Amino acid sequence: MRALPSLYISHGSPMTALQPGPVRERLAALAAELPRPRAIVVATAHWLTPGPCIGSAERPDTVHDFFGFPPALYEIRYPASGAPALAQRVFDLLAQAGLAPTIAPDQGLDHGVWVPLRLLYPEADIPVVPLSIQHARDPAHHLAVGRALAPLRDEGVLVIGSGSITHNLGDLRMGYGPGREAPYVQPFVAWIEQRLDAGDVDTLLDYRRQAPFAQRAHPTDEHLLPLFVALGAAGARTHAHRIDAGVDHGILAMDIYRFEGHGAN
């Protein structure tokens, strides 16, 4: 089996599960192109811990970590099994890299995990291991987390970072929507794509200072940090392919990235 790519998926709001828009078609097409993984590790923006933490539940719950949405959303279940042995493998790789991981035996699948996975693998027949994000740590830390996990790609494991290329929910009250997009979205999206195309990792790591409208696009970092996990998991030499899935609510760019590693990690 050839090495799998790693993915970054913008999961949008929880309503993506009921109203997926273009992302449904994009993820279905992506799943059809990929070799079928034996398991999936998802670094999710909705599980925040001081250090890397790995979910090892055999049957992880579907977690509805939001409120005020239609009842139908709370009825959705994503009954994928867990993978305790893989969770231990992730722990060992992160420990070998000096990243001081821990294991959470009862961690479920938050909507940053199950919303995109329902569109990517709707049968829920591939085991899933959730991985936390460290909101108090910088992009370089998350790149290191991803690089530690790079060997998994040769073991049939799909590594996914789940977040959002732009994420400023405070702007929901600004009247943006279809036909009226926040002015910072496209400049920020284009900058990320250009830096990834150029392989300019050092500048990406400094996005807070160098990207246009970085503070508007991400008042906090947690939804972009999974991008660095996915980028790191592809290895030291990486080709990034952007998949445009539109903009939700005029503020949430739904970009997907497929990272292909080349050569040694």
TrEMBL record:
UniProt keyword list: Dioxygenase, Metal-binding, Oxidoreductase, Zinc
Give the EC number(s) listed in the UniProt record: 1.13.-.-
The Extradiol ring-cleavage dioxygenase class III enzyme subunit B domain covers which part of the protein?
26-236
The UniProt entry, under InterPro entries, shows: Extradiol_dOase_DODA (IPR014436), Xdiol_dOase_suB (IPR004183)
- Give the protein's cofactors: Zn(2+)
Which GO molecular-function terms appear in the entry?
dioxygenase activity
Which family would the database say this protein is a member of?
Answer: Belongs to the DODA-type extradiol aromatic ring-opening dioxygenase family.
**PANTHER family, alphabetized:** 4,5-DOPA DIOXYGENASE EXTRADIOL-LIKE PROTEIN
**This protein is called what?**
Class III extradiol ring-cleavage dioxygenase
Which species is this UniProt entry from? Fulvimonas yonginensis
